[in-house]
Amino acid sequence: MGALQQGDGPVDTIDEAAASADRLAAQWSLETDEVMEFSNHFYVVLVDEAGDAATELIVDRETGDVALEWGPAMMWNTSYGMMPSHTRPVRHTVNADRARDLATEWLRQFRPGLQTGESHAFPGYFTMHTVRDGATVGMLSVHSRSGHVWYHTWHGEFIQSRGHSE
Description:
Elements: H1 14-27, E1 31-38, E2 41-47, E3 53-60, E4 66-68, H2 72-75, H3 96-110, E5 115-122, E6 125-132, E7 135-143, E8 149-151, E9 158-162
Antiparallel strand pairs: 1-2, 1-9, 2-3, 3-4, 5-6, 6-7, 7-8
């Protein structure tokens, strides 16, 4: 994972992760919205000035490096990902309701016992929390053109969150 912002050592708390993400967000004229602590790293949602979800970041616990979240944020994000579509129109065929339906069906087949939770609409895809018995356990994303589902296996165990979903 290539760092967009080099860290200066371990990040131990959700507040430290938010401060690291804030520094990068300011460079892009974005703001930190939600910060989730997982056993493997911190996950951060950045929003634009209108409050719309812009992209997802990972803050490395050991180094403090801040990078785009691998997976959907890199591959599907049409504004901040590896292949932005600023110069060509993007036709989205999957809306928020359809994305939730696709995610629900996917979970029913591949992660029985999990349901969809809070959802963010990013440029080119939707990311939803996955919940068991009302508690967040992870997340998945749904591509807004193809409807493909990508389960986020890289986070580890959910610990806590601050921000949007509180």
